[in-house]
Amino acid sequence: MEISKEALYEEFENYSYTVEYYSQESDSEETLHLGIIHWISLLLHVLAFVLGIPGNAIVIWFMGFKWKKTVTTLWFLNLAIADFVFVLFLPLYVSYMALNFHWPFGLWLCKANSFIAQLNMFSSVFFLTVISLDHYFRLIHPVLSHRHRTLKNSLGVVIFVWLSASLLGGPVLYFRDTVEVNNHIICYNNFQEHDPALTLVRHHVLTWVKFLFGYLFPLLTMSLCYLCLIFKAKKQNIPMSSKHFWTILSVVIAFMVCWTPYHLFSIWELSVYHNSSFHHVLQSGVPLSTGLAFLNSCLNPILYVLISKKFQAHFRASVAEVLKHSLWEVSCPGTVSEPLRSAGTKSLSPPETAQ
Q1: Which of 59, 93, 109, 182 sits a CA distance of 20 to 30 A from 153?
Q2: Model confidence over 269-310: pLDDT tens digits?
Q3: Ranges of each domain in the chain
Q4: CATH code of the domain occupying 37-319
Q5: Nearest C-alpha neighbor of 115 from the set 176, 157, 164
């Protein structure tokens, strides 16, 4: 059954711009433009998945299993876990885009996929805020930090962050829905009620909660921490590890650059209720800003490797260890190594025992 453009606008009054890609009547030039935007956005999502899986897995392996358990590694470990879980679900959204926004995975995966994206956004910015506060108190108030900065207290903060992120991201589990339009199943926010005013309020509340708690307040807190840290460190001649400082600061800046367009377009989206002339801008801006935001999940491991000499050293050591294992296996094939092992020969011991 064909649905008119006006009917689509009325049906999706809360706006799901995925519908507009294939439902709106457009001229050939505009269709080409939207097609280019679509493929660029798809490429950003694929890039986030391809780089995010191995990158975050390496960080989780180092900080969770190889490095000494400290408060700092605990923060970055959970940040990597949040990004890793998110990129695991990215193939669903990539498939959704590749199928011209047709969702064949059912209602519950529609809800779960959206919830994981919200959980990643809130937990990532919360952990970045915690890292910034921790860095500030550790350098400026060392006595207070030494007294309370323990693994036990840090685990409590980690649990609180995950619970808070789950609570703030939870509404999508209720509002996310699927509907069939022009033989396409759409996964979208269903704010529709019999009362249009209530629909508008729900959309506004969720958008502003996402912006305030998932972006503005954390960003202001992080900015204030680093400004105070810089001024007080210079005034009191407090030594700072430049590499560690720039590693944390670069992660915060990357989050800001990746997520700022997303939140701005989310707020701008609210204006469509009052002015439909922004449709064309949002058709291009929303998918691109979403792809850029998702790309943030693969940037942190890259920043660690580029900036942190400690991470570089551990990475090289681990790669060297893997190569030693591989070379030892190659140099001792099964026909030779098995008799040697059974005879208890110690002259050809594997790298782990030699170490």
Answers
A1: 59
A2: 887 655 555 666 777 778 888 888 888 888 877 776 556 666
A3: 37-319
A4: 1.20.1070.10
A5: 176
